[in-house]
Amino acid sequence: MSKIGNAFKSGKAFIPYLTAGDPSVEKSCKFILEMERAGADLVEIGIPFSDPIAEGPVIQAANIRALSVHTDLGQVFRLVRMVREKSQIPLVFLTYVNPIFRYGAESFFSACADVGVDGVIVPDMPYEERGECATAAAAYGIDIISMIAPTSRERIKTIASVGSGFLYVVSSLGVTGMRSDIKTGIDDMIKTIRNVTDVPAAVGFGINTPEQATALAKLADGVIVGSAVVRIIAVHGEAAGPYLYEYVRSMKEAVLRA
Asked: Could you name the active-site residues (predicted)?
């Protein structure tokens, strides 16, 4: 079992996301540690990118803020080193294909292993084109986290069968962002996944309230929240730490009620 599996060993996992370098690499490190203290089991770190096609306006704005202070891949790797000086919480990058191939797939995954990244999510990488990344990632012990969207049952089975670390189950069609109602048939998706793998499945996209977290944690192994966390950082900036702590604590408690 990879270190990512540890996030799910003690029950339902809560997984927050933030964009590296928003508002600074140093503050991102502090925010990650604060969210761990509040109960986060794993943290997704977004690598800033100029064209984040899967993201809604909240995370797009965070990418712009991070890029405006020159948060490049070198700075993101530095962030992970800083976190690893104080914590062994599982860490997963969320990035697009372009930064990986500009850096070089072999070099990228080697650097991930060197600094202590446990997995990588690539939302714009089709299943059919995952080969080069998957080979390089496997060589360095990095999990490629497969994203499973509401789609045909056979395609869900195909994607789930090669998943490692955990499976990112997309709760809603469209881009990321907070939603008041999530109507996708998550239960059926999870049942389909369970027919082909026992890799943990966590649900993301649109989740922002404790009530949603409890409801979805009853169906899945974990809950992922991005836009709501990033909005707290957008509103409070460098002073966001205590607000992140309270929000993550409330969401972790909600997940544990499932």
From this structure: 44, 55
Residue of 26, 44, 85, 106 with catalytic role: 44
* Phi, psi for 94 (deg, rounded to 5): -115, 120
Is 253 designated active site?
Answer: no
Q: Tell whether omega for the bond before 242 is within 30 degrees of 0, i.e. cis.
A: no
Task: Confirm whether 44 is a catalytic residue.
Answer: yes
Provide, for the chain, the percentages of residues in helix, strand and coil under a 3-state DSSP scheme, each rounded to the nearest 5: 50, 15, 40
What's the domain range around 90? 3-257
Which CATH number fits the domain that encloses residue 194? 3.20.20.70
Return d(Cα 250, Cα 246) in angstroms, integer: 6
The catalytic position among 55, 211, 246, 253 is: 55
Among all chains, which residue has been given the structure tokens 């670390």?
A: 165
Burial code (b: 16+ CB inside 10 Å, e: under 16) for 231-257 equals: bbbbeeeeebbebbbebbbebbebbee
Give the SS3 label for residue 65: helix
Residues 6+ positions from 238 with CB-CB distance below 8 Å: 23, 24, 27
Distance, C-alpha 249 to centroid of its chain: 18
In whole angstroms, give the CA distance from residue 54 to residue 68.
20
pLDDT in tens, 183-229: 457 898 999 999 999 999 999 988 999 999 999 999 999 999 999 99
The answer to whether residues 122 and 95 touch, using CB atoms and an 8 Å cutoff, is: yes
pLDDT band at 179 (very low <50, low <70, confident <90, very high): very low
Q: What DSSP letter does each residue of 153-214 carry, written as one string? A: HHHHHHHHTT--S-EEEE-SSSSS---S---S-HHHHHHHHHTT--S-EEEESS--SHHHHH
The answer to whether the pTM exceeds 0.85 is: yes
